[in-house]
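wait is this the right file?? whatever heres the structure
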């Protein structure tokens, strides 16, 4: 009887890596959930801040540090607003992806309520780019670099 148990135990232990691999493959094959992602297609580290309208009013938050050639999810789950605002800085070369919508940011990690009187409240003001998600549940922005004469650009797409 002990030999049978020992053999069963050995067979189960031998099968564990295969079961774990199968679970990992199934997890990757599952449909992507809705979220707001930013992908950094540059060769430099990028710091990103996001702004959006919440039930209680305007919120800006950051910094997400996104390594070169990688993506990060800034908002998990289905998007609750139609418009999102993004500001990003190249941490190594100093360039930025910005726009005409002024919102508040801070030197360190931040979550700021309100977008007015930034300096008077001890924050900095930065120009954010607006992204109209068209009420999609998922969205992705890709930060890219262009030749120095054209500056840097960002594009947003439906993430589905």
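ok assuming it is, sequence goes like this
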């Amino acid at each position: 009887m002990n030999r049978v148990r020992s053999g069963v135990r050995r067979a189960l232990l031998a099968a564990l890596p295969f079961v774990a691999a199968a679970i990992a493959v199934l997890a990757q094959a599952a449909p992507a959930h809705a979220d707001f992602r930013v992908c950094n297609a540059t060769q430099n580290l990028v710091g990103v801040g996001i702004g959006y309208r919440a039930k209680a009013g305007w919120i800006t938050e950051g910094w997400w540090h996104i390594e070169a050639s990688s993506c990060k999810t800034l908002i998990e789950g289905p998007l609750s607003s139609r418009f999102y605002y993004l500001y990003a800085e190249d941490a190594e070369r100093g360039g930025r992806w910005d726009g005409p919508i002024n919102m508040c940011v801070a030197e360190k990690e931040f979550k700021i309520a309100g977008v007015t009187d930034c300096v008077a409240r001890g924050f900095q003001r930065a120009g954010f780019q607006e992204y109209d998600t068209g009420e999609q549940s998922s969205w992705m922005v890709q930060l890219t670099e262009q030749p120095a004469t054209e500056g840097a650009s960002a594009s947003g797409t439906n993430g589905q």
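The chain has two domains: 1-30, 35-158. so i think its the right one actually
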